[in-house]
Amino acid sequence: MSTVHAVEPLCLSTRIRERLESGALTEEQVEGFESFLHDVDHDLLHHRIILENPYTSWFQEGKANDNELRRFVQQFSVFSNQFLVAALLRVINAPTLAQARSAKEILMNELGVIYRRQNGASAPRVVASSDQMDREGDPELVSTEGTVDGGTFRFRAAHFEWLLAVGEGLGLGFNEMGKRHHGWPSTLHFCDELQRLYGHEDPWIAEGASFAVENWAAAGFWQELEDGLLAIQKDRHPHLRIAFFTWHNRVEAQHAGHTMEELEDVYFSPGFDRERFFQGGQEVLDAIAVFWDGLEAGRRYRR
Fold this sequence. Notes:
By secondary structure, the protein is an all-alpha fold. The protein has a single domain (15-40, 64-301), classed as Heme oxygenase-like (Heme Oxygenase, Chain A). 62% of the residues lie in helices and 0% in strands. It has helices at 14-22, 27-43, 48-51, 54-59, 66-92, 97-111, 130-135, 159-168, 185-198, 203-217, 221-235, 243-255, 259-267, 274-301. The radius of gyration is 20 Å and the shape is globular.
């Protein structure tokens, strides 16, 4: 049975209330924002793929056999590797320098630049060997927050390399993961729509897609994947390296707290286009659903 995720209703933050009390926002502006939040809640956060994902609910049980696991990891690797194109387009098409830099944080971290914590300089460390230096890229060690500005690049810190380590434990090699020709039509549809919407030249379509992607990622599917993989690791694959999934689960738990503040910034930006924002959000969520529906059909009908 599928797990139905609860979605907390959106409400005005203390930031908005303080801006209203200070006179920075008018009653009319705040009422308009409340109406917008209602529509975001109804039209985006209650999309079926956020509320209920049959595939990840099944996966959470830890009953996927090795063939099902390999198919999942291979298709996920295609999405993960092709996301680099969407992330680069978001950098290229960013409407401001600040947004371009924000997009670069995501892209460069994906490629292997480790987040540097911003809470002061850390104590100097003596690294004895190149092996130990490379170990810094292990997802079990690297930070889930900070900035790539001044961060260290490690080949092993590239997210795709973390995913390769998962595939290796299932008999999948580098040439069997991440390429477009490995993708099912449902996976490629998602990749193409992500590039079109998340990296769109229209900033409001891109913002809507970005907001929807962040909320999908924070809705619980990473936890379901981690739970299933931990069960499989415990039952029959004790050496399976699943840190790609545990790291992303930790990251998304942190990102969830920032999405509301980002939504406020978007709404009160000059020239904000509500219709195009919802277009980007709804269309990318539809594409995400196609990806997961493809995996669900694959597990039911492929042997």
